[in-house]
Design goal:
FAD/NAD(P)-binding domain; Enolase-like, domain 1; 3 domains; seven-stranded mixed sheet; 31% helix
């Protein structure tokens, strides 16, 4: 059978674009379908605009600290409309770059919403397209049915398009999105209240990071309500009412729904290929990104594995190399670093202490926390927290966790060392760069504690 394309990709987000361009580089005939803007969640309505908002919040905090460094400043009021206009222009610029990259790679961009119509066949509007290989990279979207009435709440997409900020707001959730926006918004003017189910935010992260994050949020003025999530949300003329119990209600003019995201699989026509999403709506794949249907693959958030943009990109490139390159290549799932862009930010690579113990490792734990030089000079209270997990049997460094200024930049570099199998002795033999915060990772000498799986260590990082 003659096909229109060798590879047809559904979704022009980071993963889909990476896969299509790499496949085209190998000589494949490639098309990519997108019903919204090119660039996907990360570029258009996620990582990039979120970090631009973080920069605004950092500048605001910097202005507040400037007097301690000898500066006298005038009016430094944050104006959301000016930020929003600059953000929109930057996103337009980046989308243009993505479109040029696809065109430069000779990948055909088909604009519209795709629906699988059977084996090797996709329908986009009136156009019927065939391909030897089909890749689903449709990403995820905010959950809008986690709590009765939550559909009345704004999502992160809405927040990043706001022209004005409310004086007071609530955020529902305790994950990446909730914590990051709570931290930023509290520094840009609004009074922020955060509700989440667990006893600490950032479920699944190391206990040190979770505790430090909660303390940092409180220090920024965020009102925390652990173990509390509304039973339902009601809309009123004045705003939204959170029903917290029979006699407990709280009203807010604006509420952010950050209770999670769900894979974009509805309406794709997966049933025509006998592909059944799991209970969370994700497409199940193996380590080669194969679905249960022949010549159909899935990568990125739609698979609900490690939902990070660089992971989707690596998956897409690995798949393209396997299908059209010189030989099979699998993505390296070990030591995937991640960041939480709160203030101060978090950088982490490797398992939490509880996860490492659950995997059977005997651990030497090295920890430190200190007030950075920049904070000490102005008598600030912000602290930096660092942690190394070392395998007690072979001295290999299993994990690096940090909460503090520049944590993502520092941990990204250290992730290379962990991927290469660095030992604690390698860290000890590295000459420190002074004065930096990063040098503390190579100056840790005293073991904070030694723990083993059989010591009855409580798995509190996932409590």
């Amino acid at each position: 059978m003659a096909f229109d394309f060798d590879l047809l990709v559904l979704g022009a987000g980071s993963g889909g674009v990476a896969a299509s361009r790499r496949a085209a580089l190998h000589g494949a005939r490639v098309a990519i379908v997108e019903g919204s803007r090119v660039g996907g969640t990360c570029v258009i309505r996620g990582c990039v605009p979120k970090k631009l908002l973080m920069y605004a919040a950092q500048l605001g905090e910097g202005f507040a600290q400037a007097r301690g460094y000898g500066f006298e400043l005038g009016d430094t009021r944050f104006e959301m409309p000016r930020w929003a206009a600059s953000k929109a222009a930057e996103i337009d610029r980046l989308e243009g770059i993505y479109r040029k990259m696809l065109a430069g790679s000779k990948v055909e961009l088909i604009e519209g919403w795709a629906r699988i119509a059977g084996p090797n066949t996709v329908q986009v509007g009136e156009r019927r397209i065939t391909a030897r290989h089909l890749l689903v990279a449709t990403g995820s979207a905010p959950v809008k049915d986690s709590i009765p009435g939550i559909e009345h709440c704004a999502t992160s997409d809405d927040l990043l398009d706001l022209q004005t900020l409310p004086e007071e707001l609530a955020i529902l959730g305790g994950g990446f999105i909730a914590v990051e926006f709570a931290s930023m918004l509290a520094r840009l003017g609004p009074k922020v209240t955060l509700y989440y189910r667990d006893r600490l935010p950032l479920r699944g992260f190391d206990e040190m990071l979770r505790t430090g994050a909660a303390a940092a949020l409180q220090a920024a003025g965020v009102e925390l309500h652990p173990g509390v999530i509304p039973q339902r949300v009601q809309r009123t003329d004045a705003g939204l009412v959170l029903v917290l119990g029979e006699d407990r209600i709280r009203s807010f003019p604006w509420v952010l729904n950050a209770t999670g995201r769900r894979p974009n699989t509805q309406g794709l026509g997966l049933e025509t290929l006998a592909i059944a999403p799991d209970a969370k709506g994700a497409i199940v794949v193996n380590d080669d990104h194969d679905t249960t249907a022949p010549q159909v693959y899935a990568i990125g958030d739609v698979t609900n594995r490690i939902n990070l943009t660089p992971v989707a990109i690596a998956q897409g490139r690995a798949l393209a190399d396997r299908l059209f390159g010189a030989g099979a290549r699998r993505m390296n799932w070990a030591q995937v670093a991640s960041a939480v862009f709160m203030m101060p930010p978090i950088g982490t690579v490797g398992p939490s202490e509880a996860q490492a113990l659950a995997a059977g490792h005997r651990l030497k734990v090295f920890e430190t926390d200190f007030r950075p030089m920049k904070q000490a000079f102005i008598n600030g209270s912000e602290r930096t927290h660092m942690k190394l997990l070392v395998d007690a049997d072979n001295d290999r460094v299993l994990a690096v966790h940090m909460l503090g200024a520049d944590a993502p930049e520092i941990v990204q570099s250290l992730a290379v060392a962990l991927t290469a199998g660095a030992t604690k002795a390698d860290f000890d033999n590295t000459v420190a760069m002074h004065p930096t915060a990063a040098e503390e990772f190579v100056l840790l000498r005293e073991v904070t504690r030694e723990v083993s799986p059989d010591a009855g260590h409580e798995d509190r990082s996932r409590a």
